[in-house]
Write a structure and sequence with these properties.
Mean pLDDT is 82; it is low at 1-6 and 337-341. Strands 1-2-3 form a three-stranded antiparallel β-sheet, with no helix packed on it. The longest helix is centred in the first third of the chain and has 21 residues, at 28-48. α2 (11-23) runs antiparallel to α3, α5 packs antiparallel against α6 (94-114) and α8 packs antiparallel against α10 (207-219). It contains 15 helices and three strands. By secondary structure, the protein is mainly α. It comes from Candidatus Acutalibacter pullistercoris. Residues 7-112 form the Core-binding (CB) domain. Residues 317-341 are annotated as: Disordered.
Length: 341
């Protein structure tokens, strides 16, 4: 029976996890993914080195005994073998293998440079696999309006407020559920958002968001609230959990005929970004600040979502109507039997 990642961590990896969380300020979910990658990596090494019964299932291989001596013995070749295994045997996509590569580079960098526990970094020259660039899926303007109009039920004001903020501000799910009442600054219509890596940013609330928040606050429970700071509350009067928001969004998407793996909470973030860029003529760097992207390259994908904009850009070139020069008609040569030079 498989065990949880926390129970499988060795002392070295636990120390690394604390470094990621407290020094580098990475989100708990990100740290958990890094630890899972290392757990899989150590399990693979034990199996590949013949240190465990070859018939043993990978998820059952214990790695809590992986110590510094074991880590010092890891070679670059073994790291490449693991990444090949991830691609060939586990069918990991390029994005997943890219994260695993990042995990290994970070882990060995931490041990060799930060802690100076390794004389050699076997992952020093590791290159991430190229991740295929795909255009993000998003709802059209008409679908977005239909989604907002589909909201009903006893939590209508809360649900409509959540969908409105998603579609207008492009928040991540983790950012939305973390909003506190004090984060909504009503005198200047702004929202304080705590993003990835505990980076704080200010998002301006348009009239739709202001009205939706006001409507929800008018009916938000006041008595018996267990988390008085939380903006969005569950029926149990506790802070709304991410899974509850995911279920709610999925319900309304299905209600307007949009279902399947391609539709999720994150698609609403893509929708907000696309609508702002397509209809608002928003500068790409402003959009980067609104979405809280650390890398401009992440934001630039939204510049490729509108074929209409690209067509208009080409047609707006002042040379677009420049006519090609007309060709002069050539005099045909004389027929046989006619006079001519």
């Amino acid at each position: 029976m498989a065990v949880q990642a926390q129970d499988e961590l060795s002392g070295v990896v636990k120390q690394y996890a604390m470094y990621l969380r407290n020094v580098r300020g990475l989100a708990a979910k990100t740290v958990s993914e890094y630890c899972k990658d290392l757990r899989t990596f150590f399990r693979f090494l034990k199996l590949d080195r013949g240190l465990v019964d070859p018939s043993m299932e990978l998820q059952d291989i214990p790695v809590s005994d992986v110590d510094l001596e074991f880590i010092r013995s890891i070679s670059t070749y073994e790291i490449f073998a693991f990444l090949n295994y991830a691609a060939d045997e586990r069918s990991n996509m390029a994005s997943t293998r890219q994260r695993k590569t990042t995990t290994l580079r970070s882990f060995f960098q931490y041990l060799s440079v930060h802690e100076k526990l390794l004389d050699h970094n076997p992952a020093e020259n590791l290159v991430s696999p190229k991740k295929a660039k795909t255009l993000p899926h998003f709802l059209s303007l008409e679908q977005s309006i239909e989604l907002l109009r589909a909201v009903d039920g006893p939590n209508a004001e809360r649900d409509r407020c959540i969908l409105t903020i998603f579609l207008n501000c492009g928040l991540r799910l983790s950012e939305l559920v973390a909003i506190n009442l004090s984060d909504v600054v009503r005198n200047n219509n702004t929202l304080r958002v705590l993003g990835k890596g505990n980076k704080e940013r200010i998002v301006y609330l348009n009239q739709a968001c202001q009205d939706a928040i006001a409507a929800y606050l008018a009916v938000r429970p006041k008595d018996g609230v267990k988390d008085r700071n939380a903006l969005f509350l569950s029926n149990r009067k506790t802070r709304l959990k991410p899974i509850s928001v995911e279920v709610m969004v999925k319900k309304y998407l299905e209600k307007i005929g949009l279902s399947g793996p391609g539709y999720s909470v994150h698609k609403l973030r893509h929708t907000a970004a696309t609508l702002m860029y397509r209809y608002g003529n928003v500068d790409i760097r402003v959009l980067q600040d609104i979405l809280g992207h650390a890398n401009l390259g992440t934001t630039e994908i939204y510049t490729h979502t509108s074929s209409t904009q690209m067509e208009n850009a080409i047609n707006s070139n002042p040379l677009a109507q420049m006519a090609a020069p007309s060709k002069k008609k050539k005099t045909p040569p004389p027929e046989d039997g006619e006079d001519g030079e």
